[in-house]
Amino acid sequence: MEHSAIESRVDNLLHLLDLEKSTHYINNLSGGQQRRASFIVALLHEPSILILDEPTVGVDPVLRASIWKHLRDLVDTQGTTVIITTHYIEEMRQANTIGIMRNGVLMTEESPTTLLEMHNATMLEDVVLKYCLKDMNQTDIKSSREASEIIDPLMYSHDDNTKSSQTRSVHRIRALTVKNVIVLMRNIGFLFFTFATPSLIVAIFCFAIGSNPSDLGIGILNNEIGGGDCTKFTELKSCEPIQLSCAFFNSLEADRKFTLVL
């Protein structure tokens, strides 16, 4: 979607759900406002299939009626498939088809009018109660329909969808990248911690065990020089043991990292 189209649709949905456009983060909104903001995100891209879980919970009757009117418009004018799960039975009168499920079993699936006529009831609550009582009293419950009759197997060609799937993957990666950048920029403390922690670890490592040793005292007992010392030794002129020992000791002292105690 173009940015202008997104802005226009956001404005319409904010007006629909009675939310003010502001710079507040979602985590600073109330519980009801957060649910409405989530609902806006679900509607933003005009999906062909919309699955909603308790979309009208926690809203006032006027807003509930507005939400249902918008969902009906999506179904009637745009052909959107809307699937809703809810415990508010009476508001489901506005649905085309109602499925009553209990303990994972779909007990019936009919239009609201048909269900009311079948059970000679005026309220859908009474119809649902009858099915629940019937389910409790039966010892061997069978589903009114087999799964294969309700959901057709999804048949598609993998080759035909490979290119479009790759395109969608690129868009998803881009969206996730933008999302993570925004999250980091909004949380400066976390951003600083993310980049500062590796540098701090390296600095501590180098300070503790990564530097070269210095001024290490070494006690030496060298029987090769007898009772003498290496003070008169200047350079290696032969392969005599005393010459080799003194050459080695002098090289250590010249490095200034060791203090020799002879």
From TrEMBL:
Keyword Endoplasmic reticulum included in the entry's annotation: no
Record-linked InterPro entries: ABC_transporter-like_ATP-bd (IPR003439), P-loop_NTPase (IPR027417)
Keyword Transmembrane helix included in the entry's annotation: yes
Membrane-spanning parts: 188-210
Superkingdom, taxonomy of origin: Eukaryota
Keywords, alphabetical: Membrane, Transmembrane, Transmembrane helix
Gene Ontology molecular function: any one: ATP hydrolysis activity
Residue ranges of every copy of the ABC transporter domain listed in the record: 7-56
Position of the signal peptide: none
PANTHER family registered for this protein in UniProt: ABC TRANSPORTER G FAMILY MEMBER 20 ISOFORM X1, ATP-BINDING CASSETTE, SUB-FAMILY H, MEMBER 1
Protein name per Swiss-Prot or TrEMBL: ABC transporter G family member 23
Native species: Pseudolycoriella hygida
Phylogenetic classification of the source organism: Eukaryota, Metazoa, Ecdysozoa, Arthropoda, Hexapoda
